[in-house]
User: Fold this.
Amino acid sequence: MILVYLAVVGSLLLALAVVLAPLRKAPRPFPENPRPQELRIELEALKREVKELSGPERVRLLKRIAWIERELGIVRQREAARADRARVRFPAWGALLLAAGGIVLAAVLVQYTLPRLPGGTVTEAFALEEARTLRSLQARAERENTPEAWLAYADYAFELRDLERAAQGYARVIELDPRNPRAYRRYGMILFFAGRAKEAAEILSVVTRVDPDPEGLLFLGNAYFQLGEYERAIAAWKEYLSRGGESRERVESLIEAARARLTARSPGEAVFAQKCAACHGAQGEGGIGPKLAKNPILNVPEAVIEIVRNGRGAMPAIPMTDEEMTALLAFLREL
Ligand code: HEC
Assistant:
């Protein structure tokens, strides 16, 4: 169907281009020779007259004859040139004919392959046909009330991105066949589309254990990623790749993005790692310096600032910008 639509649009554009092309280079007007036919008649008359003349009169006529012959020669050349141009232009006419043929063919195809709708556009025709198919699938599902019929209806709705109907359809499948992994999986995907990443992750993590379909693994990864659970997202996407998921490149770059998020530290954590961790431990658990994690002194930011700026005992003063200090204090509160 889409091919037919493309064929119509394509041949219309082609025809338009071909029709408009000659207009762009309009032929240059050139001064038309004054009536070659009349010149020829005059020439015949002069040739007859000249035989009976002599002296200067004869010379005048001969000159006139010579001029007319020259003129007619030029005319012939111009006519030949024009004929050449006409011959050059022929392929354009051929293309025009071809394009016209294309339009007729496309029109015939549209006429016989699409439902005829007075006044309706081609896209409307597609939408109407889809809606009709969906309705008939729904009618069949209601009549038969089998998981298979509801699944066919829900799958078609899902394909059309009519997620509400798809969700209803999959819910009916689950009612009739509570172990149908496809219905659960699609339901989970729809939850993700609806912005309910947490519920999506719950459903998909269960269903992908039963049926590790790539589609489910992909969306499980998406849901975890959205929730900020990057390690789980990476695991789901890796399994997606190992099960032969098709969007290999896209998922590989998603895995990279998740890894980047995983290693990215908050600015405060970065300051701590660089300026404090060596003495107070990577997690503030204590080392050369005392334990900072859950240290009550952290509840008094002024005291911490004072110690850091001026040092205390074995701890040197540690220079830093106000921004770094703000970020550091935020990180210390989380320890
Ligand atoms: C060269 C090692 C060293 C570095 C670097 C260092 N400290 Fe200290 N820090 C110490 C020592 C040693 C003490 C104990 C000082 C004392 O009371 O004698 C201490 C004490 C502290 C105290 C007081 C703890 C308490 O319970 O009294 C705080 C708060 C503190 N440091 C924060 C920081 C912060 C924040 C950084 C990074 C910006 C940092 N320190 C960097 C060695 C260090």
